[in-house]
């Protein structure tokens, strides 16, 4: 077991990001079994859960004439339009059935406000509205974070960069992540994480 300062942060291992889901990440379900195994090493385990209202502004369906994966400008900056996914209380928003979700002590939901997306488990996409995860981890004396999950080039990236900027020691286990890789987003994500001081394992 690792020291009490170490937390495993499992990002968005949900049905919609796995095979057959609304925003399936290639190979998404491959990470479930090895993440379950890794949980056993960590005294602190946190899951994030993408949790959108059915009319969320990141959904292309809410923007007449737009299609998924196009970019639009939101008041807080550029935003990718996604297929409807991880709608609150839908099966797609549930954790993958084989994920050992009961091992987690904390589940942080994000993206629950209609007008704003939240890739990061720490801040919404305006980069100022907190989710509360930072305070939870600090209150538990956590200083080192290991990130795994989906998708490497969106929610994992944003979470790990925010963690490093907040002063946590942050590493990403790339073998326990899978990427969407939209227009070079994977290469961009790796560069952004490295620049922020995130260790890419
Ligand atoms: C994610 C796109 C939209 C993710 C969530 O978990 O990486 N990507 N919502
Ligand atoms: Zn989402």
Automatic annotation (TrEMBL):
The keyword Iron does not apply. It comes from the Bacteria. InterPro entries: Isochorismatase-like_dom, Isochorismatase-like_sf, Isochorismatase_Nicotinamidase. GO terms for molecular function: nicotinamidase activity. Keywords: Hydrolase, Metal-binding, Pyridine nucleotide biosynthesis. PANTHER family: LD05707P (PTHR11080:SF2), PYRAZINAMIDASE/NICOTINAMIDASE (PTHR11080). This is nicotinamidase. It comes from Meridianimarinicoccus marinus.
